[in-house]
Amino acid sequence: ITLPPFHGKGNVENYLDWEKNVEQLFSFHGVSEEIKVSLATLSFQRHAMYWWTSLEKERRINHEPPIQYWNELRSALRRRHIPPYYDRELMDKLQRLKQGSSSVEEYRKSMEFLMMRAGIREEERTTISRFQSGLNLEIRDKVELLPYRDLNELVQLCSRVENQLKRKSFRKEFTPSYSKSFKKEGHSSLPYPKEEKEKEKEKEKSSFKAPSKESKSSEIKCFKCLGRGHIASQCPTKKTMVLKAQDHYSSLDEATSSSSSSEEEAIDSEEEILPCEGDLLLVRRLLNNQPSDLDQSQRENLFQTKCKVLENTCSLIVDGGSTSNYCSTKLVDKLALTTKPHPKPYRMQWINEERGTVVNQQASIPISIGKYKKEVLCDIVPLEVSHVLLGRPWQFDKKTIHDGLTNKISFQHLVKKFVWCPLSLSQVNEDQLKLKAKKDEEEKIKKKQKEKKRKEFSLWRERRARYKKTLTLVSSSFFWCQIKMAMEDEHLL
């Protein structure tokens, strides 16, 4: 039997996976209890092997019997690699688990994984209730009205509803808008026989002279433009209704129709320009290069603002060039936020960095700005420029609209429109200076502590050297005293 190697180094998940694999191999091959411990310890390498050797030695010194059964070895390994708070942390993650931006199938896998790790065995109706409470509202409201027998049918229904919602959102986003010019073009593209018939009819009508109705038409008054000579249905200043996406419409009168037609002509005359080729040049403003009081435009500024995370003020950046949502490792450590393994770990490489950083952890960040409150799933990276960085995934989910002039971001949330205003350049630089001063102060404190430890270590070395010297003198004097006494006994002195 070949067991998977165990190095004794890593997180709790690595050990639990190894333990599960070993138990499956033992069960499959029918290994007896007498050789399970020997086979398992043979797969120990590096730190695990050192730990096992020291454990055996310690048990021999304490006159304790050696470990002979797999249950005893498993208990010792669990005490070594699983912290006492692990079960409580799993329960907290399971209680706070929500679907969020993940799919229904990914949400179910996460719930089943946490339940398996925590060793929870409950009735199926309890599991169904737990699964429903974490679903998104738009899916849960529809599924609650549908019949189902067990958890598998419920998950299948949720997946169907999720696919329907995706199709509806896709249709709304790509619904074409029709304009007046399109209708005019449609009328101009009639076949030639119909045009000839219309011309013949017009000639026939022109051959008959219509009676003059100038006296009667002058008495008619229009209720729209208050002019005379026509009725409201024949008013020349008609309103043009332009349909837009998501069932919105706007009305334009004839006075503005000329501008809209010019805009439509400009749209027709657009030219597609491909991106330029070449290496990108990243330029950032230094802390020492402070802008003047008059230079307060948002032309060279990313969208930066402040938010609340668990009642703590944090910096936030919205950047459409980022392919993921990120949060700082310092923020996660400082607020003790719960993390979970990344479903698809990847390596991120910064500028002038050779190997890059492995991104394998995620955390749900409860962001609140004013009345907007939402948990955002972010990848944990060593971020220095901000505490939270919202990228394309957040902008895609919220369907945000960015105003390039004012640098404001607007979006819909819970049937309400939110408009985020950015910080000014002076506010951004003020925050950066405060962070720099705080960082310098922390570095000074660390430097003082390091200097203090170095002095304490040097004092300890001096005391140790004096102690060894004294011990050498004492031992040498005691040795010569013994020689002198032996020589006196032999009458050599």
Automatic annotation (TrEMBL):
Keyword set includes Zinc-finger: yes
Keywords: Metal-binding, Zinc, Zinc-finger
GO molecular function list: nucleic acid binding; zinc ion binding
Region (Disordered): 180-212
Sequence ranges assigned to domain CCHC-type in this UniProt record: 221-236
Domain of life assignment: Eukaryota
InterPro entries with a match to the protein in the record: Peptidase_aspartic_dom_sf, Retrotrans_gag_dom, Znf_CCHC, Znf_CCHC_sf
Pfam families for the chain: Retrotrans_gag (PF03732)
Bias type Basic and acidic residues, positions: 182-212
Leader peptide range in chain numbering: none
UniProt-recorded name of the protein: CCHC-type domain-containing protein
